[in-house]
Design goal:
The complex is a heterodimer of chains A (459) and B (384). Chain A is an all-alpha fold and 459 residues long. Chain A has helices at 19-32, 35-58, 76-99, 109-131, 135-144, 151-174, 178-204, 216-242, 251-282, 287-298, 302-322, 329-356, 377-400, 421-435, 439-458; strands at residues 2-4, 7-10, 13-16. Chain A is globular and about 65 Å long. Helices cover 29% and strands 14% of the residues of chain B. Classes of the chains: A mainly alpha (459), B alpha+beta (384).
């Protein structure tokens, strides 16, 4: 991206920035879009508009139009925040095989995961800003007032740092700064573990809600993050393959099988943790935990749990991954989509089950047999708008940014990174360039080659 | 080694006169002089390389090439060892095999690509520092925590919180469920009128003859109670026992609300009362979900809210604005049967210490582990 005078260069396209010229360029761009893309953009714009209106209605003091109440304080917006926040972490966890460990089969994830991670984290922040009654105080309060006993404060620290690291990751990727990029990727992968763990701890420390309370909550949060991020990548790479987007040659033979592998791991992990959650809950001596779990499996949440969480989210994706004739890009994409829906409803049922059977009267409200919560149209509109925002921003990124493979993943020869033939080719190129006297190329590639050759000599 | 002329700005100065030196002789002399001269030998080798490079450059370009421009990178292209101190200076691997001095402007692209340049580093540091200073300045100009709420410090002059041992006792055997305490609280503290927003409320606990416990609290008990329990399933069942249980914030010693607050808006005063700084609260609802006694709520949008601040966490403060002036909480003051008792156990004139000693009240739900400071008497303890 280059900015100069009244123009902006994006992915090789010169975009004028004066209002008149920008308008004309916009019309040209729309005309240059295919019919399908135009329909897609109109579809997303509609939901974006719904989300925008909902967000305006929810701005303080508009919180009265939410479905939450003192006896059910956390609702769909908290679910949305958690969902998009863990997607961010999952994207980095899924891609860490390439970005941190240099494993060849995950390299197609590298650029797309970073773009998606920035978008999903930005969306998560937007949703939580609408959920909070005084979001500006949160920004300043979290910085100016240190509250180390609060998991929510630490969550702010980790996710705030996460956004900075992700922005550095994207910037260094598109501006060819390999060393910075690799440091950013490694830091992002580390925070991708810390951040959802802390997010899980936000719920896990609340002894007043036995369904949330406990050490397994952060573990389930990290596992769900991994599954959610992998699922999103699975859907994206199907469209890369189907629509022949940039670097699509590697989607079907490399990226989609890699997604299939990670998806199988994620589904196994999360389903085991959900089984543990249900079995432990039903056999607990704690009445509130037992009742909440019963609400989940045989009460008002049963339809969501069995239909969307278990069948759509676990069983069908697992079958699609196992059967030989559905081990196709389309089969993997459907499995990914369903798994992602499953994670969303897993988080929804998690948040609601935690509050559905309070231990006692809450602020004068007796909830019997269960506390009730119905998301308001505004809350649903915000979530739909958030989904449309990510989809539209990502569509534009695919259209205007260079999503092809990048060489920035070989900046530093970490001791744990296995040397690949792929790297050798790059090193060879760099060496040839260096021999011609291009000191610039030798600076980056040569250092990596030197590190690798040193490691090779040592072994 | 001949002295190099000082470069003047960006203009290349004329080439110095390079005097031929028998460097091998000079290095050999240095190496024979003992360990102390090892450093001198290494320095001599370095200088020899430097001179050779200068001579070579002068030969190639007598005008510009023989000069070491301002800011040249002093990079040794061959490894050198200083045995006396055991230090090895590594060669730069990207450089040619023979010794050269690379001007900084030639190295700059490679350095910029391989690492963060000094300019970028300084720029980032300055931008970061500027951001902090700017945020601080903005915070001063537009204080984010300032609004129209009451004075942040609730401690009035002359009040010594450290000397107080506030004690609150609720006798469920005496409570008649009239709801006057709820009315008084709402009036005294500008609590919203809607029943789901309340600092204190009354529950009715009815145990039927089949052993089932039914709990109801119609409109938080503000209008009293109908003869029959309103709890689903309780109608028509014969009652074995029943009692009223007034509820309020327990001012826990191990309070989850103060622990989880991400901006420290909820805090404990020195006399143990937990308060909310309405100017600081962000309205996240974390404390509301974390309170096991359900004593908190978020104030709704509207004119009638405590501290005139909507959208923040609120709870019973034991009428802190009254007790630090020597008055009793409004609910205690109005209770017609003395079911709520309050006092300073350290005050010789107060009978609360003697009352506690005589009746041995107990906390409600001690299994929650928060060490609540409101103590209960009567049938509600047998129920637990």
């Amino acid at each position: 991206m280059q900015v100069g005078g009244s123009t902006l260069t994006l992915g090789g396209r010169v975009v004028p920035t004066t209002p008149r010229a920008a308008g004309a360029a916009l019309v040209r761009e729309v005309r240059s879009m295919s019919f399908g893309l135009r329909i897609w953009m109109i579809f997303l714009s509609t939901f974006l508009a719904i989300g925008g209106v909902s967000a305006l209605l929810a701005l303080p003091p508009g919180w009265e139009i939410m479905g939450t109440k003192p006896s059910f304080e956390w609702g769909l917006l908290i679910v949305g925040y958690v969902f998009f926040a863990i997607i961010t972490s999952g994207l980095c966890l899924s891609s860490s095989g390439a970005t941190v460990f240099g494993i060849e089969r995950f390299r197609p994830f590298e650029k797309r995961h970073a773009i998606l991670a920035v978008l999903s984290l930005t969306t998560a922040f937007g949703i939580i800003a609408l959920e909070l009654h005084y979001p500006i105080r949160m920004v300043f309060g979290a910085v100016l007032v240190i509250a180390p006993t609060s998991p929510m404060w630490w969550m702010g620290v980790f996710y705030g740092a996460y956004l900075v690291v992700l922005l550095v990751e994207v910037w260094s990727m598109f501006t060819d700064h390999p060393r910075i990029h690799q440091w950013a990727c490694t830091a992002a992968a580390g925070i991708a573990v810390c951040a959802p763990t802390t997010l899980g701890a936000v719920f896990g420390v609340i002894a007043a809600k036995p369904f949330w309370h406990g050490l397994f909550t952060p573990v389930l949060m990290v596992a769900s993050a991994f599954l959610a991020g992998t699922s999103l990548l699975g859907m994206v790479f199907y469209f890369v393959h189907r629509l022949k987007l940039a670097d699509h040659e590697r989607a079907a033979p490399i990226a989609i099988p890699a997604v299939r592998l990670l998806l199988a791991i994620g589904l196994t992990l999360v389903s085991a943790l959900v089984v543990r959650q249900v079995v432990a809950g039903l056999n607990s001596d704690e009445l509130a935990l037992r009742q909440a779990t019963e609400a989940l499996v045989s009460g008002p949440l049963a339809a969501q749990f069995w239909g969307l969480r278990v069948v759509a989210g676990f069983v069908v994706p697992a079958i699609l991954l196992i059967l030989p004739f559905t081990r196709t890009p389309a089969g993997t994409a459907i499995a990914s989509g369903l798994a992602l829906v499953g994670v969303f409803f897993d988080r929804l049922t998690f948040v609601t089950a935690g509050q559905i059977y309070p231990r006692g009267t809450l602020a004068g409200t007796v909830s019997y047999p269960y506390a009730e919560y119905t998301p308001s149209p505004v809350e649903i509109g915000i979530i739909l708008g958030a989904l449309a925002f990510i989809a539209m921003a990502y569509t534009l990124a695919e259209r205007y940014l260079d999503m092809g493979e990048t060489d920035v993943h070989v900046g530093i020869a970490w001791p744990w990174v296995k040397k690949h033939a792929h790297d050798d080719e790059h090193d060879l190129e760099h060496a040839e360039t260096g021999a011609e006297g291009d000191v610039e190329a030798a600076g980056a590639g040569g250092l990596a080659a030197a590190g690798a050759s040193t490691a090779g000599a040592g072994s | 080694m001949n002295e190099q002329p000082e470069p003047t700005g960006d203009t290349a100065v004329p080439a110095p006169q390079v005097t031929p030196v028998d460097e091998s002789t000079r290095a050999a002399e240095a190496s024979n002089a003992g360990p102390a001269s090892d450093i001198a030998a290494a320095v001599a080798a370095y200088e020899a390389a430097e001179i050779a490079a200068a001579a070579e450059a002068a030969e190639a370009d007598p005008v510009a090439g023989s000069t070491i421009p301002a800011g040249s990178a002093r990079i040794l292209a061959v490894p050198a060892t200083i045995p006396a101190v055991g230090v090895t200076i590594p060669a730069v691997e990207t450089a040619p095999a023979d010794a050269v001095l690379l001007p900084l402007d030639e190295m700059a692209p490679a350095i910029a690509k391989a690492s963060v340049s000094r300019r970028a580093f300084l720029g980032f540091g300055l931008a970061f520092a500027g951001g902090i200073v700017g945020a601080g300045a903005l915070g001063q100009l537009f204080p984010v925590f300032a609004d129209d709420s009451a004075d942040v410090n609730p401690i009035v002059p002359g009040y010594d919180p450290k000397s107080k041992a506030w004690t609150f006792v609720v006798d469920t055997g005496s409570c008649i469920g009239c709801g006057l305490c709820v009315v008084a609280c709402k009036e005294e503290n500008h609590v919203p009128e809607a029943p789901e927003f309340t600092r204190t409320w009354i529950e009715r606990h009815v145990r039927t003859t089949d052993g089932t416990l039914y709990v109801d609290s119609p409109e938080a008990g503000i209008n009293g109670f109908p003869p029959e329990s309103t709890a689903p399933g309780a109608a028509g069942k014969p009652v074995a026992s029943s009692h009223f249980q007034p509820r309020l914030c327990m001012q826990c010693e191990d309070s989850p609300c103060t622990t989880v607050c991400p901006v420290s808006a909820t805090y404990r005063t020195e006399d143990g009362v937990i308060l909310v700084d309405a100017r600081r609260c962000i309205g996240c609802g974390y404390c509301v979900t974390a309170c096991p006694y359900g004593a908190r709520y978020l104030t709704p949008a509207g004119e009638r809210t405590p501290n005139d601040t909507p959208g923040v966490a609120d709870k019973c403060t034991w009428c802190y604005h009254r007790i630090n002036k020597g008055q009793k909480p409004a609910c205690v003051e109005i209770c017609p049967v003395g079911a709520r008792r309050f006092g300073d156990a350290n005050d010789p004139g107060s009978d609360i210490a003697a009352y506690v000693a005589a009746t041995n009240p107990q906390p409600l739900h001690p299994e929650y582990g928060t060490r609540p400071r409101v103590l209960y008497l009567g049938p509600t303890l047998k129920e637990a």
